[in-house]
Amino acid sequence: MPRALLSVSDKTGLVAFASALSTRGYELVSTGGTAAALAAAGLPVVNVADVTGFPEMLDGRVKTLHPRVHGGILARRDRADDLAALAEHGIGLIDIVVVNLYPFAAAAAKPDLPFDHLIEEIDIGGPSMVRAAAKNFRDVLVVVEPHDYESVLAALDVPGGFTPAFRFEMARKAFTHTAKYDTTISSTLAEVRAEALVRERAPSGLPAVLAASFTKVRDLRYGENPHQVAAWYAAPGAAGLGAAQVLQGKELSYTNLLDLDAAARIVLEFDEPAACVIKHTNPCGVATGATIAEAYVTARDADALSAFGGIVGLNRALDEATARAIVTTFIECVIVPAADPAALAVLAAKPNLRVVVADFSRFGDLQQAHVEWRSVLGGMLVQATDRVVEARAAWTEASIEAMGLRVVTERRPTAAEWQALRFAWRVCAHVKSNTIVFTSADRTIAVGAGQMSRVDSVKVATMKATAPLAGSAVASDAFFPFRDGLDAVAGAGATSVIQPGGSMRDAEVIAAANEHGLTMVFTGRRHFRH
Length: 530
Hints:
The protein is α/β, with parallel strands linked by helices and 530 residues long.
């Protein structure tokens, strides 16, 4: 009778899986809480203590660390001497090992958990069994993720059972599982002050040791240039682009993914239907609309020349009307939270157009609770994700103080200007510095991105304007260092300005705004993007 050893912290799907193994003729061997869960479900289960001949001891620290367990896992079935050694000592074979580890990461997430409690969440027997089974993958199947239960049962029902390739893939997952576990322990213990055995997180909350295991999604055609190799990796607990599906089109490139990321970040700032067109990580058009199709057409037409060959982001499901609008222009990629079958049928006429579907709700999780990594020569930079939290809710005269906003000019914004300023502020945070953005209440009119001086950003924006700038709102991602930039936006026709403030010459800039009859709002919060 084949045997399966089950010892899991995450009991998702456990009973159903164990029942299916039992039905297929496997004897179930288990430990502690797992054995209790199986017995409570009415399944026949052998406690590991009955296999080893020793009770669990030391408050559960020792239960599977025994030759009757590890011999049964590590014995090579094609070695007569291995099998003879088992027979001599009365050790039975173990054919499947189903193990996931103590929830150390969950314990580590509790900053006030006493050190001794934290230490008890370090699994010893579990990683040993996982590594032993993975090492002997030719003869023993190791399962560490509940979401693999279904594929394991499906493989069992195929004549010949588990293929060598299937066994090896499960072993590789197992070693990744234990590697991540040990990395989490190492990173957490780096926060412990050795003299007192007390955790002391840095005020920033960022780890003392930065380590993570990323899984390759696929190799890319090349990097930013054809002579650079590149690959796409998913972060642990893949979400956002790490878990995206590519439904059609050519292989994605390195720059495509950077642009898709930029597109998703922008449209996620809006609750109403929103669309953007990205070129080289900067928006050439952003708009909202009553429908996603209306938003897309408006965003595209904000700079139709630059939109050619762009990347499109939508914060609503792609529908047929929007798809028909998209195929009228050469577009490289589209990123959406979902896509209707009728829309995909339309886009299929453009076989090279990449269609990427990602769970936008998980992007929000990443923005709220995540950090961003960026490599530099010989090192890594880490920062909290920038979020335009001060613009999540609508701005009104009654709410601006709560948002940290301050009107600094003699003239206050009208209701329409408040709406336009909020739109402009959400967009400018996603444009490369130095940034000047001219908008109406629902669309960009001109974007000046990435210039070395702010007044040059104004000049670039006005040069690229595709509609009159009279009455527009302007957002500047950082303060105006001199009044020349403010004079330039006033000369272009803007009537309202939003900026962080904080310049040594704020008084000079405010005076200039009053001279021009502008209304200006300080946010007290900068949004550089490099």
